[in-house]
Amino acid sequence: MSTLAMIYIFILAIFTGVEVIARVPTVLHTPLMSGANAIHGIVLIGGVIVLGMAGDDMVLCSLGFIAVVFGTLNVVGGFVVTDRMLEMFKAKAPAKDKEAK
Amino acid sequence: MTSTNISEAAYLLASLLFIFGLKRLSSPRTARSGNLVAGIGMALALGGTFILPGMGNFGWIILAIAIGTVPGWLLAKRVKMTAMPQMVSLFNGMGGACAMFISLGEELKWLNGLDGRVGLLPSLREALTQMLPRSFPMLLGIVLGAISFTGSLIAFGKLQGLVSEKPLRWPLQKPINVLVVLGIIGAAVTSAGVISVNYHYALTWIIVLNVLALLLGVLQVLPIGGADMPVVISVLNSCTGLAAAVTGFAMKNMSMIIAGTLVGAAGSLLTVLMCKAMNRSLAKVIFGSFGGTAQGRAAAGASDKSQREIAASECAIMMGYARKVIIIPGYGLAVAQAQHLVHELDELLEKRGVEVKYAIHPVAGRMPGHMNVLLAEADVPYPKLLDMEEINPEFEQADVALIIGANDVVNPAARTDAASPIYGMPILNADKAKNIIVIKRGRGTGFAGIENDLFYNAKTRMLFGDAKKALQELTTEVKAL
Q1: What integer is the mean pLDDT of A2-6?
Q2: How open is the CA angle B198-B201-B202, to the nearest 5 degrees?
Q3: Dihedral Cα B289, B291, B293, B296, nearest 10 deg
Q4: CB contact, 8 Å: A53 with chain B?
Q5: Phi, psi values for residue B190, rounded to 5°
Q6: Between 1.20.140.10, 3.40.50.720, 3.30.300.10, 3.40.50.1220, what CATH number should domain B301-480 receive?
Q7: Is the pLDDT of residue B306 over 70?
Q8: Which of A45, A87, B157, B364 could cross-link to B163 by cystine, CB 3.0-4.6 Å?
Q9: Which of A25, A40, A79 faces B39 most closely, judged by CB atoms?
Q10: For residue range B322-341, what is the model confidence (pLDDT) as tens digits?
Q11: pLDDT for the residue numbered A91
Q12: What is the distance between the alpha carbons of residues B321 and B332, in angstroms, rounded to a whole number?
């Protein structure tokens, strides 16, 4: 892939990123930040590639191994925390029903 | 179809799912599914990576993933809702560290490759004009990842109480930071330049660069006060996003570029939106000071006035016979874990025919939206939580405004005192209520370190104590009425 193509994608992704969350209500700022935090856990796959392609080079293996551990923490923790936060929002509907009865 | 094709297809689909997930995350009704969609995207991207040609070390990869999953899962499941912000910061730092180690690995691999392929060393000019641009994405990935890593850890420490919440100051703060930045640039250039002497010399300078970048993360976040941490976490979040994108450039990996850039861009916008909600300028958060001007004023203002205390029994009578009570929850409520007690008090009052509503300031708690999450956890029905714009006109009809552990968001100085650092921040008009009860741990100032005139108001009564204990007393007294 040429550098120029990567720069094109980079620029388009900037606009997409800004556009998709432009109308987020204040209530969702924290969960959205947390969700975005989980998405940049994509670095994990970079770590997997470094480790997977390292062969038997000890230095690269160690770097890749540490990167995968940290990346997994980011991904797993990020998604689970976000889900727990958003679960609270969902819990509202049954609570409201109880109130109505 | 070759396995490369399948990987590419998985990356493409994953990128679409990230965009779609982010979109769904920004609307309350679809948010939870949005998180799931993004999670599926992540699994797809990971699966696609496994089948890339030339992959090996699968045992190690799975072991590393297992080692990361267990604590990540346990931490995320066990953390209290009040501690969410620092948890996000911690996980963000992990992502930064990951990007840093990957970039280091890629840079090393690149250097090793040079050593093997090219017999002759490049001239200094070639090293600077050709080697530097080629290693640039890796070096930038190291720097951004390292700043995210240590910066997030300090932010975590500040919110967790491991590092002082106060803005730490030391002499020559800004010049030192500038010097460190210059040092990083110098180390980057030198690391490429020394390739003309020996490929292996570059490594020393890359380690210097890495250490300086780690240091910069610490230096940059330490001087920022705890109240501004949400903004800092948001900035570092987009920083990690960028680090992921830059690493994607280095590895020519499409899904990393797209996902990283998405988060970088969305995170930047989110930072701006948060600053708006708190009426703070981003430049001031990162480079400015908070509370410096207020201290002089507080000393002058506080001495001639006094705060009036009240007993829980008297509060109970005031609220039990009121027609309308507006509860203003703040961070103090969150730390005391008293959200369930508030709900209990609220139900007791409603049974007596008192109308109870909650006034939620956009930045109540520690982050925008944090308080809504906490109250939702305690089963407070959603329609009773009102935004600032909706509730402010209602304060005039309220018999009692019950302020629990909130301070700066009800400080009238934001409306009246142009010299105050929070001047211009939209606040809840608690001072318009007929009576004001403040539950507060002590006489100190709030998070921002600013004196609050509302506490000296003739209509205000103070109920000192931990929010949980005070509310327990209150509910007992209301039951006894």
Answers
A1: 89
A2: 105
A3: -140
A4: yes
A5: -60, -40
A6: 3.40.50.1220
A7: yes
A8: B157
A9: A79
A10: 889 999 998 788 777 788 88
A11: 47
A12: 26
pLDDT at B295 over 70: no
CB contact under 8 A, B22 and A20: yes
Q: In B75-99, which positions are buried (b, 16+ CB within 10 angstroms) versus exposed (e)? A: bbeebebbbbbbbbbbbbbbbbbbb
Give the Cα separation of A84 and A20 in Å (integer).
22
**CA B45, CA B378: separation in Å to the nearest integer?**
37
**Mean pLDDT across B423-440:** 86
Q: Looking at this protein, which amino acid is placed at residue B307?
A: Q
How far is C-alpha B311 from the geometric centre of its chain's CA atoms? 37
Q: For this structure, is B408 an active site residue? A: yes
Q: Show Cβ contacts of residue B155 under 8 Å, excluding neighbours closer than 6 positions.
A: B86, B89, B221, B229, B232, B233, B236
Find, among B354, B355, B385, the residue nearest to B371 by Cα: B385
Q: Which amino acid is at B303?
A: S
Give the closest residue to B98 by CA, choosing from B146, B137, B45, B64: B146
Q: Whole-angstrom Cα distance, residue B59 to residue A51?
A: 10
The full set of domain ranges for chain B reads 1-78, 81-287, 301-480
Q: Please name the residue ranges forming H helices in B51-172.
A: 58-78, 84-117, 124-126, 132-160
Residue of B21, B95, B251 with shortest CB distance to A74:
B95
What strands lie across the sheet with B385-387, from one edge to the other? B385-387, B355-360, B324-329, B400-404, B435-440, B460-464
Cα separation, B75 vs A81, in Å, equals 9
d(CA B267, CA B401): 35
B131 and B192 in contact (C-beta within 8 Å)?
Answer: yes
User: Is the predicted pLDDT of residue B363 greater than 70, yes or no?
Assistant: yes
pLDDT of residue B276: 79
Q: Which of A89, A27, A85 is nearest to B388 (CA)?
A: A27
What does the buried/exposed string (b/e) look like for B124-152 if buried means 16 or more CB atoms within 10 Å of the residue's CB? eeebbeebbeebebbbbbbbbbbbbbbbb
**Two tokens, residue B399:** 């018999």
DSSP type of residue B423? T
* ipTM, interface predicted TM-score of the complex: 0.89
State the CB neighbour count (10 A cutoff) for residue B115.
14
Q: CA B85 to CA B373: how far, in whole Å?
A: 12
Q: Determine which of B262, B269, B387 to mutate to test the interface with A (most A C-beta atoms within 10 Å).
A: B262
Comparing B4-18, B228-242, B435-449, which segment has the lowest mean pLDDT? B435-449
